[in-house]
Amino acid sequence: VAIENALLYERVQAANKAKSEFVGVVAHDLKSPMTGIKGYAELLMMMGGLQENQMNYLKRISDTVTRMEVLVQDLADISRIESGLFYMEERRVAVSDVIQAVQDGTMPQIRERNHNFVVDMPDSLPDLWVDYYRLLQVLINLVSNAYKYTPDGGTITLKIRPDAKRVRFDVIDTGIGMTPAQIAKLGTKFWRADDNFTRSQPGAGLGYSITRSLVEQMGSIIEISSVPQEGSTFSFSIAIAPEES
Questions:
Q1: Please, which residues have CB within 8 angstroms of residue 49's CB and are 6 or more apart in sequence?
Q2: What is the pLDDT of residues 46-65, one digit of tens each?
């Protein structure tokens, strides 16, 4: 029985690896045709002379491809994480640089929903030792979830504080919140809560799974505090950069 179980486990692992590699190849191969579709749509819009309904159709094509690009990138990240080919390029990073990039990447959507965005951080913070782009990806994912799952006119707060030899990040919203049962399922690939508000928001149920994996590779975990109809807080920490000699 032990030998059969070991062989079965080996076959399952091999199948998982093959699946991850297949997903990675498909995600990569989809990028070129999507780039072409979006490029030609935007080129037609730039040429002018189109009727209003024609412009609307082209904009829908471009917006749809943008959503597909997000999904394909999520699938590529999942594939790399599952196959063990996901690496961090750690370096010295200034907190203020990351926060500015987060604001640049999310403020149009936050303003569109009439949210109030608050950055609560001290004037001086130590540099981080982290992969800049992966930390940026984590924060943008968490802030994006915050503004998506908060009804229009809410408040999104990004709070940063030193915490021993690390820096703690809290993403706080005044949104729909979650029950303990929903929190337990959060991170399950392709799972989304079944309430009408959640289902009305764009997403495939992969973002948080990727975010959690990235945070774990950064040496932390995501802590979640949430109350239905009152809001949620997602917290994690990042190591401080070693002192320069």
A1: none
A2: 887 888 888 888 888 888 88
